[in-house]
Design goal:
heterodimer, A: Aldehyde Ferredoxin Oxidoreductase,  A, domain 1, Aldehyde Ferredoxin Oxidoreductase Protein, subunit A, domain 2, Aldehyde Ferredoxin Oxidoreductase Protein, subunit A, domain 3, four-stranded mixed sheet, 27 helices, about 40% helix, globular, B: about 25% strand
Chain lengths: ~625, ~90
């Protein structure tokens, strides 16, 4: 077995209450690393086209990678893969917390949950004893994610759902500690299996190829991260909401259901404001992560809980025009406890408010007014009343009530909190990402709109190139499984320290913007490991990983996801943006919206796809994508 | 010609306001100068320190992607000081 893997896949049949430990497929591990890559390969092979995402034939796959179980910073995340009930295409979500660490301690690389239980159940996995107990979960059914984890105790590592998952809210997630695998409705799939919680324990140690080198390098890297302006300072001090004032200044923070990109009072929900007014502590909810981007705030009547992150403060704050951090923190707590994705939730609420504003639906929800929102969130989680409709997300809401032109989703997944009209590469990424409108499958906006060295986000240069490089990289990051924030370390401290208005800064920005062929060539070189995650993978597995290797593996994963989506009936028509993004300008100099039609052909060509967005046979063979 | 100036969080803490209007500016450089005036001698050091790490945008467009400090502005424009960040 390749080093870094436990070498085992645990398959659980929930209908028959049976299980089996099987060997990890080494070929798949070599080709797809682990995490969402390995999970997607399994899903593709295990399922036929057209299965019901909430039916018994949709497997729910928890997948770790070779970095999980190590002490590498930001490395204890797991991926969940299944067919998405929200999009009908590939479903996946990644989560921090502690469950990935628990799986590796239990000697399990991949956990495959098949079929559906007859009544609520929870799993107790003892990796050392190679045993799985099926425990009736009637006593836990209906409880929130916080209470459920408290009852399960701290001796094991848990992944749980809340009432939203139980009620198959299409954007329900799976929670570990205070982190959530939020996107694409993986929690609804877990709920459809009547599986409330998974607990795992074990005492296995990660077997590395060169532990000495790994330890020595990681010790050095931790020092480097500690001194890094983003990983060691800004995220630690302000959390992810420290980005609010930047996206607001760049006119890309969703406001009034993405009608605008700026709100005059956005500062009230920023990380800086949170630090001054609401913060009661910082912490890391993810094992071995020194970044500590987690915030603690007080919620009235509840006490000290996890504070909202950037996506949450933007989608529930500016986007609803409720600039009250206490309210947003309360809604964030409610969503976490119910177990649902705050991005999809916020976009669905803002869509409902716009329906209300236009007289298309009387939901009692209004922009700028917090009244009714808490109750609606609870109704969504329990699928009560109108909440039952909102529980289906923006796409289905628009099919039911109208409003397609302002329905903010791609492929059925609600957009996250970066307006692509001010971030063209991010728009291409939204349009083409296989799971739909999400930012952490590439995070192109960091290179064009929010980071310390950004290219002009509103011309066509590199706007089809960057998403490909970033999507490929993110595919591998989510397969190791690492936190995407690790990529923030790629821009060195020296660049952060440059005067952002200086000629040197402008020169670097222009050089970057015009680096197309050079950038692509540099990223494709298969040489020695240079970056930390390449070195970690190399030291742990004993195989060589460099930028070129990761781009190739990432491209393989991305194309396999693409083939899965095509098999499920998605087409190039789904590679689009909401009409509001394409036709409504938000910047003074703009005549229209995002120039996607000008960029998509180049994206397809660079990907090795035909004009219909289908990977050519040559591309599939080059990347060894078996379909 | 009225221009709205929006400050970074740190700048707003020094001045006690988040934004203000300035008149008579034709370029970003003029706005920076008028903003410095708002800080006055009392907060001159803070202004220098805080603007050294702040980029400038006009209506959401970074001036380093246009004509820098020479970027022209028009009535009703918003000039924003901002700090690069990371999150998500």
């Amino acid at each position: 077995m390749i080093k870094g893997y436990a070498g085992r896949v645990l398959e659980v049949d929930l209908a028959n209450r049976t299980y089996a430990f099987k060997p990890l497929d080494e070929d798949s591990a070599r080709l797809y690393i682990g995490g969402k890559g390995y999970g997607t390969r399994l899903l593709y092979d295990m399922t036929a086209a057209g299965i019901d995402p909430l039916g018994p034939t949709n497997p729910l796959i928890f997948a770790t990678g070779p970095l999980n179980g190590s002490v590498a910073p930001q490395s204890n995340r797991f991926a969940v893969v299944c067919k998405s009930p929200l999009t009908g295409g590939i479903g996946n979500a990644a989560c921090g917390g502690s469950f990935a660490y628990g799986m590796k301690r239990g000697g399990i690389d991949i956990l495959v949950l098949k079929h559906q239980a007859a009544k609520p159940v929870r799993l107790d996995i003892d990796g050392d004893a190679n045993a799985v107990r099926f425990i009736d979960a009637d006593d836990l059914w209906g409880k929130g994610t916080y209470a459920t984890q408290e009852i399960l105790g701290k001796k094991k590592y848990h992944a749980v759902i809340g009432p939203a998952g139980e009620n198959k809210v299409l954007y329900a997630g799976i929670v570990s500690n205070e982190r959530i695998a939020g996107r694409t409705g993986v929690g609804a799939v877990m709920g459809s299996k009547l599986l409330k919680a998974i607990s795992v324990s074990g005492s296995r140690k990660l077997d590395m190829d060169d532990e000495e080198k790994f330890k020595e390098y990681t010790k050095w890297l931790r020092e480097m991260f500690r001194d890094h302006p983003v990983l060691g300072e800004k995220l630690k001090r302000y959390g992810t909401a420290g980005i609010v004032n930047t996206t607001n200044a760049r006119n890309i923070i969703p406001t009034h259901n993405f009608k605008y990109g700026h709100h005059k009072d956005a500062m009230n929900i920023s990380g800086e404001y949170m630090e001054d007014h609401e913060l009661v502590g910082i912490k890391s909810s993810c094992i071995h992560c020194p970044v500590t981007c987690g915030r603690d705030v007080n919620v009235e009547g509840v006490g000290r809980v996890k504070g909202p992150e950037y996506e949450t403060v933007a989608l529930l704050g500016t986007n609803l025009e409720v600039l009250d951090l206490k309210k947003v923190a309360e809604w964030n707590y409610l969503a976490d406890d119910l177990g649902m994705d705050t991005i999809s939730l916020g976009a669905t609420l803002s869509f409902t408010m716009e329906l209300q504003e236009r007289g298309m639906l009387n939901a009692g929800l209004h922009f700028g007014d917090h009244h009714g929102v808490s109750d609606m969130i609870k109704d969504i989680g329990h699928r009560r009343g109108l909440g039952n409709d909102l529980a289906n997300g923006v796409k289905r809401m628009s099919e039911q009530y109208g409003g397609h032109e302002f329905a903010m989703h791609v492929k059925g997944l609600e957009l996250s909190a970066y307006d692509p009209r001010g971030s063209f590469a991010q728009g291409v990424e939204y349009a083409t990402t296989n799971r739909g409108g999400c930012h952490v499958q590439g995070a192109s906006m960091y290179l064009e709109s929010v980071g310390p060295l950004t290219i002009n986000p509103q011309n066509l240069k590199l706007k089809a190139d960057i998403p490909i490089l970033q999507q490929n990289l993110a595919c591998t990051i989510n397969s190791m499984v690492l936190c995407i924030f690790t990529t923030y370390g790629l821009i060195p401290k020296a660049v952060h320290n440059l005067d952002p208005n200086s000629f040197t800064h402008k020169l670097l920005s222009l050089a970057f913007e015009n680096s197309g062929p050079l950038l692509r060539a540099a990223m494709s070189i298969k040489g020695k490991p240079m970056l930390w995650f390449e070195k970690w993978l190399t030291y742990i597995t004993g195989q060589t990983f460099s930028s070129g290797h990761l781009q190739e593996i990432g491209g393989r994963i991305f194309n396999l996801e693409r083939m899965y989506n095509l098999r499920e009936g998605l087409t190039a028509k789904d590679d689009t943006l909401p009409p509001r993004m394409l036709y409504e300008p938000t910047f003074k100099h703009m005549q229209s919206g995002h120039p996607l039609p000008q960029l998509l052909p180049r994206y397809y060509k660079l990907r090795g796809w035909d004009a219909a967005g289908v990977p050519t046979q040559r591309t599939l063979e080059r990347l060894q994508v078996r379909v | 010609m009225s221009i709205t100036v929006e400050l970074t969080y740190d700048m707003s803490k020094v001045l006690g306001v988040r934004s203000f209007e300035v008149n008579g500016a034709r370029t970003v450089q003029d706005v920076v100068r008028l903003t410095r005036d708002q800080f006055g001698a009392e907060h001159a050091d803070a202004f220098e320190k805080l603007t050294r790490v702040a980029a400038v945008a006009v209506n959401g467009v970074l001036v380093n992607h246009t004509r820098g400090m020479k970027t022209a502005i028009a009535d009703g424009d918003t000039v924003t000081f901002l700090k690069p960040a990371a999150g998500g």
